Every structure is written in C-alpha cells, then in structure tokens.
Amino acid sequence: MECHLSRLTDIGIRIEPPARTGGLGGGVAAVLSELVSMLERVALGGKPATIDLRSLPMSPQDRIELQQTLGRGEVQATLTADGVSTLQETGVSGVWWIEHRDRHGELIAELIEVAAIPQILEVSSDEMIASAQALRERLSISHEAPVKTDHATLS
Amino acid sequence: MQPLVDNVAVGEMLRLHGISRRGFIKFCTAAASAMALPPWMGPAMAQQLQNAPRPSVIYLSFQECTGCFESFTRSFAPTIESLIFNVISLDYDDTLMAAAGDAAESALAKAMHDNFGKYVLIIDGSVPTGAGGGYCTAGGKSAVDTLRDAAKGAAAIICVGTCSAFGGIPFADPNPTDAWPISAIISDKPIINVSGCPPIPEVITGTLLQYVTTGKVPDLDEHLRPKAFFGTTIHDRCYRRPFYDQGKFAKTFDDEGARNGWCLYELGCKGPTTYNACATTKWNGGTSFPIESGHGCIGCSEPGFWDKGSLYSPLSATDWGKAGESSPRQVLELAAGAIAGGAVLGLASAGSGRLRQYRSEHPLDSEPKDS
Q1: Distance from A20 to chain B by nearest Cα, in Å?
Q2: Which of B153, B162, B169, B177 could form a disulfide with B135 if both were Cys (CB 3.0 to 4.6 A apart)?
Q3: What is the ipTM of this complex?
C-alpha cells in the first residue's frame, strides 16, 4: 500500500477531552479562580504573582480553553535577551501570558503573570545609575561605540 | 579542559559573555520552572547567583552507555552551554574535553587537587567490581579506584542516571560484572540521585543548578532523589488520569481506546509506581512524554526497574505503594538486618538474593569487592 505521509504533522490526531457535564474543565476553572484572587491581591498593593503553566498537568484541550477564555489584549512586548520572549497582555487587564524562548526558538518557560507590567521589563534603579554613568563616559569619549545589545519593544 | 576563567563570580562571567540582567532572569525563570520551584524563585535565584563563585564540577563516566550524558547535553532550560560557560566550571569530562591520554588524566588530578573539598562530582554509570575492577578501566585505573579517589575531595556527589543511582541495567540479573551503584560504595559524602534511563535533561541540569544556587543538598526522598522532581508519581500528574478515574482503558495499542487517548494502565503503564517529572517537565524541550506518545511509562527511574517483569504486564494491585522498594542500599540494610537476626528474607525484589549472599559472605561494614 502506498503511504502518502511525509511529515509527522500529516498524521491526524483527535484529542478527546474528558467527559464533562458542561462549562469549563476543572483545571481551567481552577486557574481562572486563582487569577481572580491574584488580581484582587495585586490591585490592593500586593506583589505581582505568577503561575507556571508547565507545572500544571493540563491537556492540550485545557490549554486551548484557557487561552480562549482569557483572550488577547492590546499590548504585546517582545524581549530579545538570550532568545526571544513574548509578553502578551490577555483580554483580562493585568493578566499577561508570557513565553520565554531560547536562542534556538525552543520554548523554555511559559507563565501567566498578574502585574501592571511584567517584572522582567522593569528597570532597577541600580541599572539606571549604571546607565547614567555609562552615558557620562560616552559624552567624554566622542567615538564610543554603542554596547547595549538587549532591547524590549512595546507595540 | 581548563576552566575558562578562574575565580570569577557568576554575574561577572555573564557580563563577560554579554548576557544581560534580563537574559539571566529569563535563564533562572526557565530553570526554576524546570525544577518545579515556585515561579518567584527565578528572579530570586538570579539575584543570589550574581555574586556566587562558580563551583568546580568533575564529571566521571563509568559502566554506562553515554545516554545520560547525551540527555544532559540536550537540556533546554538551562542549556548545557549556559551552565558550562556561566554557572559552573566544568574542569573534567572525558566525553567533552579535547584533551586525551596523560593530558586528560593530569587535568583530572589538577582539578581534584585545586578544588579539594569543594568540587561537585557528577557520575554516570555503575561501578563494576568483578575481576579486580577490570571490566571498566581508564588510564590503567579501575572505575572503583577512580571513584574512591575522586569522592575523597568532593563536596557532594550527583549520580546521574539509574545505573549510578541504583545499579541500572548492569546491576540487573545476572549482573556479570558485579556492578554496584555509587551509594553502595561511597557512604561518607552527600549523594543526590537523579535517576532515569536516561534522566530528563532539565532534571539533571536543574538539580545541579539548585545545588550551585543554594550550596545545599536539596530535600531528598528515601532513595536520595530530589523531591522537587521525584515528589509525585507519573500517574499523579498524568493528563490521562481522568480516564483512569472514569475506568476508560486502552486494551491494545491500536484500539479505539488508544486512539481516544485513554489510560494505558492495562497495557503495562508503570506510572502509578514511578516517581519522576516526565508528566510535567516532559522531554525534548517540553514537547511531550512517552504516555503522550501513546506508550506507557516503563518505570525507568525506579530501583530494579529492569528486573520487575514485562514492561507490558499491567501492574498488580500489590505493587501499589511499593515504588522503588528494592534500592540497593535499602535491600542491603534489610538483608543485613535479616542476616543478623537469623531471619529468612522473602523479598521478591530484584537483586535481593544476590545482595543477601554478598552480605552473608562479607562483614557488614565492608565495601563491594574490588580485587
């Protein structure tokens, strides 16, 4: 018999979700409930909070359901530091879906962070002082070449 | 292999390699995720490592297939190159190093001398003690002698793979080389077992990074495995668990149940008695794990897994709650107690008869024979 399959993606896979009586899956509902409590805590001045998606035993179906429920928001940030990271605001303000990839494009961490701005984007005062010092030195050396390689863009 | 830069803290090494603070936070976030640590630990770890010195690491391979090292080099988070260049000083590894012969042996001796009492010793492979240790030698020295010498100056020993942790396949019946796990030979050093055949790459690098970060041996289970990775069974965290709870089982590998992704328990899955992180950390950069590919867990991270019968026989109810019962040290202790008390052991565990015989012929404080 002739085989027409040339790639793994040609193999059809059907994912049957566990039988449900309706509504969201248990894992998805638990994550959403936790997000509600995190949002309330952070809004009242609490520290930003994070859920590590890789630590949850979610089925592919649950993952899709969670993404669809949260939706996409207005802001997406791209961080280029030892690989590309995307920080996508979800349709729920203050809830960010973060994917960190390495230099080869492999997904190395996937998180949901509840914060006004994801912590990794913030710049510390130490860094600002170091930046001021670096700029001061550049002003005194006219042919100084730019050295900073990392950048984050907001769109 | 010489350290690239001696006595340089991790933060300084990062700057030398052009890695930014954000890049390092990302590295630590990924590592914390791989280690199943709380997400806030990533930034905290980055802060702590900034000023930490890079520890010397010596990697020795004994009776093994190099599968564990192959796994080690495929870690995505952290990557092996990130570890080697930034966080540790890998001073000896006979697979990676360019040096050979006397130059390689000199590098090992120098690393052991210069970092005595401080280095981390990583070992893969079991140690054959038969034929005077002659089944595994390098540079005219047996594995068992090399192990004893290298262990003297080690701050801790990380056993990578089921062979070094529990004896593995060489230790399986009939064990023609009289192979032993590291913990049966070295008893005066902290030992961390990272079992698996092979172990998950991120579990190897994550355990090493956790030790380097904290300077402490992590919380271990009764088989000396880090609880962060070996705290729950595959079954506990399996995405097919709802089908088990509903009583939906695949009966063959190509029936309707298999195609629907039902539970593989009746096809011999050892997930209920196997402690490992496959169901959450997964393999190949988090792509999938064996059950996700339609095959049951074979229990490779448990002691004596090779001698526990067919990989395709369903677990008996009597097996539940007995995961890893036959670790060599545990069996040694049981056997020693039974011999001392004149009792007859009825252990069905793999290797227990052999160990009983060994202990009955040797004083309780002796080491496995090396001559």
Answers
A1: 11
A2: B177
A3: 0.72
- The whole-number pLDDT of residue A54 equals 80
| B29 has pLDDT over 90 | no
Show residues of chain A in contact with B260, CB under 8 Å.
14, 16
Put simply, whether the predicted model's pTM sits higher than 0.90 gets the answer: no
Domain that holds residue B294: 234-319
Q: In the structure encoding, which two tokens stand for residue B116, read together?
A: 């005595």
- Asked, for residue B1, whether it belongs to a domain, the answer is no
Q: How far is B326 from chain A (nearest CA, A)?
A: 29
Closest CA of chain A from B335, distance in Å = 39
pLDDT in tens, A44-58: 999 999 999 887 777
Give a yes or no: residue B367 inside a domain: no
A130 touches chain B (CB under 8 A): no
| Cis peptide bond upstream of B78, omega within 30 | yes
Q: Are B107 and B123 in contact (CB under 8 A)?
A: no
Burial B107-131 (b: 16+ CB within 10 A, else e): bbeebbeebeeebbbbbbbbbbbbe
The nearest alpha carbon in chain A to B25 belongs to A120
> pLDDT tens across B104-133, in order?
999 999 999 999 999 999 999 999 999 999
Can you name the residues that pair with A107 across neighbouring β-strands?
A101
Average pLDDT over residues B189-217: 89
For A119, which of B43, B243, B261 is closest by C-beta distance?
A: B43
Q: Note whether residue A3 is domain-resident.
A: no
C-beta atoms surrounding B139 within 10 Å? 11
Residue at B46 is within a domain: yes
Query: Does B159 lie in the same domain as B18?
Result: yes
Which are the contacts of B17, defined by CB distance < 8 A and separation ≥ 6? B85, B86
pLDDT, tens digit, for every residue of B298-307? 999 999 999 9
Which of A28, A55, A85 is the best residue to mutate to test the B interface, defined by the most B CB atoms within 10 Å of its own CB? Answer: A55
Query: Is there a contact between B279 and A57 if contact means CB atoms under 8 Å apart?
Result: yes
Number of domains in chain A: 1
Which of the four pLDDT bands, split at 50, 70 and 90, describes residue B222?
Answer: very high
Q: Is A2 part of a structural domain of the chain?
A: no
pLDDT in the model for residue A12:
66
Contact between B83 and B96 (Cβ < 8 Å): no
pLDDT for position B38: 78
Total number of domains in chain B? 3
Peptide bond preceding B55: is omega within 30 degrees of 0, i.e. cis? no
> Which residue range(s) make up the domain with A79?
25-154
